[in-house]
From TrEMBL:
<feature type="domain" description="HTH lacI-type">
    <location>
        <begin position="14"/>
        <end position="68"/>
    </location>
</feature>
<dbReference type="InterPro" id="IPR028082">
    <property type="entry name" value="Peripla_BP_I"/>
</dbReference>
<dbReference type="InterPro" id="IPR010982">
    <property type="entry name" value="Lambda_DNA-bd_dom_sf"/>
</dbReference>
<dbReference type="GO" id="GO:0003677">
    <property type="term" value="F:DNA binding"/>
</dbReference>
<dbReference type="InterPro" id="IPR000843">
    <property type="entry name" value="HTH_LacI"/>
</dbReference>
<keyword id="KW-0804">Transcription</keyword>
<dbReference type="InterPro" id="IPR001387">
    <property type="entry name" value="Cro/C1-type_HTH"/>
</dbReference>
<keyword id="KW-0805">Transcription regulation</keyword>
<dbReference type="InterPro" id="IPR046335">
    <property type="entry name" value="LacI/GalR-like_sensor"/>
</dbReference>
<dbReference type="Pfam" id="PF13377">
    <property type="entry name" value="Peripla_BP_3"/>
</dbReference>
<protein>
    <submittedName>
        <fullName>LacI family DNA-binding transcriptional regulator</fullName>
    </submittedName>
</protein>
<dbReference type="Pfam" id="PF00356">
    <property type="entry name" value="LacI"/>
</dbReference>
<feature type="domain" description="HTH cro/C1-type">
    <location>
        <begin position="19"/>
        <end position="62"/>
    </location>
</feature>
<keyword id="KW-0238">DNA-binding</keyword>
C-alpha cells in the first residue's frame, strides 16, 4: 500500500529540495543545472531536466522574488470595462508583453484619478513596473510609486505627475476633423465631450476648436456625453429636440463610443446622418466600421503606442535613473460615410 502514489490533490509540490534529494546532488547543483550552467556536466543537466519534467517542477516565483527583489510582474491598470478602447488596449498589451516574456497583472481602476489603494496594491504584488492606460495619476499615487522604485508609464494619457507617457496626438487629430468638416462645407458645429474632462478629451476639443477659430468659425453647441454610449445617446436626443434651424450641421464626438450613441439617437429621432447632420469621432474602435455606423474617425495607433510604452517601461526597470519621457504619435484620419459634402451654393447658412 505504501508504494501507491497519493492522489494528485494531496501530492506536495516538487521543489529544489525534492529534486536534490532524488537526484543525490546539492540544491545549488539543481539550481545551476536548470539554468543551463555549463559548469554542470551535460549528462547531469539532462538527468536533472528529465527528473524535473517527470515531477512537474516549476520555479517558485515567490522565492525568486524574495531572492532577487524582482517579481517579473508588470502591473496593467485599465479603464472602464464597458469602453471598447480598453479591451483593444488589453489585447494588444497582453500579446506584446507575451512576446517579450513579460507577465501582466491586470488591475481594473475604472474612470477618474487612481486612488492611493490602487497604487498600494501595485506595491503589495511587488510589480516591477506599471502601465496605466486610462485614469489620471494623482500626485499621491505618483509619489507612492516613485518612492518605492516602481516606474510608471502612461499609455493613452499624457503624464502630469512623475511618469513617462505615450499618447496619440489628440490635438492634431481634433484639428484634422475640423479641417475635414470645413472643407466639406459645414458651418454650424456642435461638440459632445465628456464630463470627467480628461487630458485626452480636452486635447481633442482644443484641437478641434482651435482649427475652427483659425478658419473664422466657432462652436454653436457643446453637450456632455459622459464618456459612454448612453451619454452620447442622451446628447443626440437633445440635438433632435432642437428646432431644425438651430441644430448643428456637423457634430464632433470626442470618442467613438459617444459618437455611436449620438448617431443612434439622431436616426431614431428622424434626423438623417449624414444627409441632415454629419457626425465624426475619435479612436477607430472596431464597431466604428460597422455598416450601421460607418463612422468617420481618427484611428489611434494602439499597437505602436503599446510597443513604445513597453519600451519606455523596460528601459526604466533596467535603469531607474532615466528621466521621464513623453512620446506623441500621430493618428490616422479614417473617412467613412457619416460625413457629407455640402453644396454651399444651394444650402443656405442659418
Amino acid at each position: 500500500m505504501n508504494d501507491v502514489p497519493p492522489p494528485a490533490a494531496f501530492r506536495q509540490r516538487a521543489t529544489i529540495v525534492t529534486l536534490s534529494r532524488l537526484a543525490g546532488v546539492a540544491p545549488s547543483t539543481i539550481s545551476r543545472a536548470l539554468k543551463g550552467d555549463t559548469r554542470i556536466s551535460a549528462e547531469t543537466r539532462a538527468r536533472i531536466a528529465t527528473l524535473a519534467q517527470e515531477l512537474g517542477y516549476t520555479p517558485n516565483a515567490l522565492a525568486r522574488t524574495l531572492s532577487s527583489g524582482r517579481s517579473g510582474l508588470i502591473g496593467l491598470v485599465l479603464g472602464p470595462s464597458t469602453h471598447p478602447i480598453y479591451t483593444e488596449i488589453l489585447h494588444e498589451t497582453v500579446a506584446q508583453a507575451g512576446e517579450r516574456g513579460m507577465r501582466m497583472l491586470m488591475i481594473h481602476a475604472g474612470a477618474g484619478p487612481i486612488e492611493d489603494k490602487t497604487a498600494e496594491a501595485l506595491l503589495q504584488y511587488k510589480v516591477d513596473g506599471c502601465l496605466i492606460t486610462s485614469a489620471e495619476l494623482s500626485s499621491r499615487a505618483a509619489h507612492i510609486c516613485s518612492a518605492n522604485g516602481v516606474p510608471v508609464v502612461m499609455v493613452n494619457r499624457v503624464a502630469r505627475e512623475h511618469s513617462s507617457a505615450v499618447a496619440c496626438d489628440n490635438r492634431a487629430g481634433g484639428g484634422e476633423l475640423a479641417a475635414l468638416l470645413i472643407a466639406h462645407g459645414h458651418r454650424r458645429f456642435g461638440l459632445v465631450n465628456t464630463s470627467n474632462r480628461t487630458s485626452t478629451a480636452l486635447e481633442r476639443e482644443q484641437g478641434f476648436v482651435e482649427h475652427l477659430e483659425k478658419a473664422g468659425q466657432k462652436l454653436m453647441l457643446r453637450l456632455d456625453g459622459q464618456s459612454t454610449y448612453d451619454g452620447g445617446f442622451e446628447a443626440g436626443r437633445q440635438i433632435v429636440a432642437l428646432p431644425a434651424r438651430r441644430r448643428p450641421d456637423a457634430i464632433f464626438a470626442v470618442s467613438d463610443i459617444i459618437g455611436m450613441g449620438v448617431l443612434d439617437a439622431l436616426r431614431l429621432g428622424g434626423v438623417r446622418v449624414p444627409q441632415d447632420i454629419s457626425v465624426v469621432a475619435f479612436d477607430d474602435i472596431p464597431q466604428a466600421a460597422w455598416p450601421i455606423y460607418d463612422l468617420t474617425t481618427v484611428a489611434q495607433p494602439l499597437g505602436a503606442m503599446v510597443r513604445r510604452g513597453l519600451d519606455l517601461l523596460a528601459a526604466r526597470m533596467t535603469d531607474p535613473g532615466l528621466p521621464d519621457e513623453t512620446v506623441t504619435l500621430r493618428g490616422k484620419l479614417i473617412v467613412r460615410g457619416s460625413v457629407r459634402v455640402i453644396d454651399r451654393n444651394s444650402v443656405p447658412i442659418a
